Automatic annotation (TrEMBL), chains A, B:
Organism the protein comes from: Halomonas cupida
PROSITE patterns: HTH_LYSR
Protein name: LysR family transcriptional regulator, chromosome initiation inhibitor
Family: Belongs to the LysR transcriptional regulatory family.
InterPro entries hit by this protein: ArgP, LTTR, LysR_HTH_N, LysR_subst-bd, WH-like_DNA-bd_sf, WH_DNA-bd_sf
Pfam (any one): HTH_1
Amino acid sequence: MMDYKLLEALSAVLHHQGFERAARHLGLTQSAVSQRIKLLEARLGQPVLVRGNTPEATDLGRRLLNHVQQVQLLEEELTLSLPQLAGTERHLRVAINADSISTWWPQAMGEFMRDHPMTLDLVIEDQDVGLQRMRHGEVAACLCASAQPVQGTRVVPLGRMRYRALAQPDFLHRYLPQGPSPEDLARTPAIIFDHNDQLQHRCLAEFGITGPFPHHICASTEGFIQLVMAGIGWGMMPELQVADLLDSGELIDLVPGYHLDVPLYWHYWRLGGESLDALAHHLEKAANQVLVPF
Amino acid sequence: MMDYKLLEALSAVLHHQGFERAARHLGLTQSAVSQRIKLLEARLGQPVLVRGNTPEATDLGRRLLNHVQQVQLLEEELTLSLPQLAGTERHLRVAINADSISTWWPQAMGEFMRDHPMTLDLVIEDQDVGLQRMRHGEVAACLCASAQPVQGTRVVPLGRMRYRALAQPDFLHRYLPQGPSPEDLARTPAIIFDHNDQLQHRCLAEFGITGPFPHHICASTEGFIQLVMAGIGWGMMPELQVADLLDSGELIDLVPGYHLDVPLYWHYWRLGGESLDALAHHLEKAANQVLVPF
């Protein structure tokens, strides 16, 4: 068997992004943590960490991290049926897209966690980066728009999130007094989340606008809504997130009747144990209540 | 005079994070943009970009970017008094902390932009990174908790944002049925924004808890609120952002009467022209309405 004391130190240094914080978390001195990492490297004959302001895993380090996280999941699985083993805490690292964490996912997760206590470490990422983190074993699950499975994982289709092109009424009146003609639409400032966000481009393309258009950039979902509410631009927003603002008329459609559906999939480690299976099943059911079915 | 066609190409490649996108924005071919960057480097005898998936500025590139952004601000300043010069669009890049973009700042900015049209590029960053971006000339303004001025900038104190330790009532009942004793508080799961977020630690330290405590990690302000609302943990939240949830009783205080105030400052380039001065003055007034005064 491998020496899990050493692997636990590695996992803690990477998870807590530093030797000092890892030591505090493990209840050890910083030098003890450092010794364990050095011993691990001496045994393997290769470095597991790149030391810097924030320590990062080498390729070897990542593979060990992947392994120790899977072992931790299996251990915690065992603890569920043998509560006397409790003491080690269950920990789940998930890559998730910004719009899911801002809408239905926390509620669904909260229900599951009543019977499956654990701590969550959520990494807010776009799909490509999220899946890459799965491939590297940095996260145990990923919620994203890609159906493409990563080796060693299962993929569960959840449903589609509906986006509408929305703006504040005064803003629309100011920029599109004659309604949404392509000429005026192309001059109306949009908000985009970041340079990877193509939702506004796809909406405009539907109306024949494929060139550049004025836009603001804001990679915060709540900031995005606030900028739209302040009459700074229009943007594609999940219906789920702004239901109240649509009901009250504080947000209205740029182009009535238009919407765009983005599919969502749950990826998770196949060897993560029964409770990752149970979680997938639970999320599938919860998503069914709130997302547009496939 | 320098050749601003070349500098504009550099600025576009960095701003749009790629040659193709920069070309689309400038209405040029990708090869024309590439030629301009090469010519710039040939004249200077040094690279201005590190080519990679996403091009990054070299030190020299950053200094040029800083310069061209200041020139752009001054030009747009001039355009305000000489509207016949219009055509170049005013562009403002700002580093801002997540809680400000999610609360009062967009409304204040929307009011200012009625008379000062511009496009915004918002970089959501913690204070240290935000100020470092100012130092490198990557952003023209920064809203953060540090009063420490960067060379060549002005600093305007805005006020303090009040945070309260909040949770969902069922959650509190489950974890703290006897009230907030230090023993029970130390066992109650918290949500933290990221590894730099010390607000929850500072709150617990007030009650004598300085060791590790169970916590989830979620670097999304909206996700943070949703996790608390789902009964997954407690967290420090800006009063401003959750006023409705406090009124309706959907969120309640972990420790009644406890709060923590975080100061906020607006940093901006001294040579950014009159309209950056006017913006600072406007934000100072707007902040006065919503933040706790110094």
